[in-house]
Write a structure and sequence with these properties.
The chain contains twelve helices and 20 strands. It is an alpha+beta fold and 491 residues long. The strands form five sheets. The chain has a nine-stranded mixed beta sheet with strand order 8-7-9-12-13-14-15-20-19. Strand 10 and strand 11 form a beta hairpin. Helix 6 runs parallel beside helix 8. The protein is globular and about 85 Å long. 33% of the residues are buried.
Length: 491
Amino acid sequence: MARTKQTARKSASGHAKPVQLAGRKRPRTSSTASLTLTSSSPLSSCPSSPELRPISKESNRFCYLCHDGGRAIACSNSGCPRVVCDVCIEMPESIANNLNSSEISFKCPACHEKEERAARSKPMPYIAFTQTVQGKSVPACDEPTFVSGVCERASKSQVRGGPILIIHFVFTGLNVRGSVPRVLNTALEEYHSEETLRYLEVVFDFGTCRKLRHWQTEAESLAATIGEDIFQQKIFFISVHSEVTRGDLFAGKDEQGSDVAVRPKEFMNYLFSGGVRPLVHGATLFMLSCGPLLAFPDSVSSLRKGYSSMPYFCVVVMTRLRLANRLRPAYTIAFGAKRFISAVIKSFIVAFGVRVVIQGHDLGEVFKDLLDVSVELPMHTDAYIFEVKERAASGTPTIHVSGTRYLWFHSHRRPWGTPLPMSCPKCSSIRSWSPSKSGEDQSGAPGRISMCQSPTCGFKHFSYQPQAPYEIIKTKVKDNEGKGWIKQTGI
């Protein structure tokens, strides 16, 4: 059965009767008369659509071709959540009047293209509507279906409308006005109602044993408030300071009001206490913290163990129970700038909202594309993405964490991803560096050499080549000037 639904339009155009409110009356043109007589927009006072069976909760809310609302038809293929509106696809009247029939099925253009690619066939006429006759599927129309809409996005994209949970955990005292999580929430509001988009800001402070016990109680209350985990997507932000000499994360204030920090693994166990812990499973985590978290091997290792190790206060024997108590976010994103400014990733987070949350692309596959649309991010910070997967080794399920680092490089400004100092350390001249050239240091280590061009200086700055394994993804090469991303795996 082809499923349909009606959703409010988001586009700002439609048909309306011309009126004269003041001044000289304008002449009535033939085009105006045509629009008035043939209006079929839901914005005008047209007869309502016939009452139809409710569409599946798993289906998208908006047409994947135009991202707009209206009368939409859901794809009948199992596992496909896409819907197409009646503006983007021509629907014969005989089909429109029988969409409730259990014998009518609809195949969206995306599934049609997917089947063609799988069969490695040449383009074939699009048969959108089929019906079952004597146990066989046959075309329900005499002619192929014409798609009048234009797919403005990738063919894999969709318009997901399932329930979303966004929680912003904020270290006590931090300012959240104009914060990145609020930007994401605003970007998603156009596609969601209050029932399907839930945004929470939670301030934490567990700097003492007493405060930690209070926080654990608060975490249980938070989990009770959220209720059953019915969310299609979960996105958690953690805004917190990192300690500059160890990479520890700030937990709160002690009894004297001074800041205290704990290892990243302990921080994760404390923050996601009790009933909040299961919500992390399958979520995307954004660590809005400064670079020291990622600058020290011990802190990076501790962060990874936060996903793959048991909480210190849990003692369970069975492997599956141990896995159930571990933090298993799908992805964790972090940034390596020594003094990280979250404002530079606002364009990145909006692109994340559109490409990943709405269109349904896998974050790992489009992560580099999201970095490319961020104008200020590349020069400010490198970016890390950690993916958490469950694997079965010798029949025993284990948690595997893989980390990848993206560094922006520019052959003259950021050789091998290392920003050149603004002033020459020897003569203090500003922006005096020559275009870098390949070379070696005194020990024979490879890198690039930038020389101060001040007449009386000649100081040489050496930028070391990153450790393997890595991949260079160039975005532009011109006049011996190259720039792009260094993708460093095995972090």
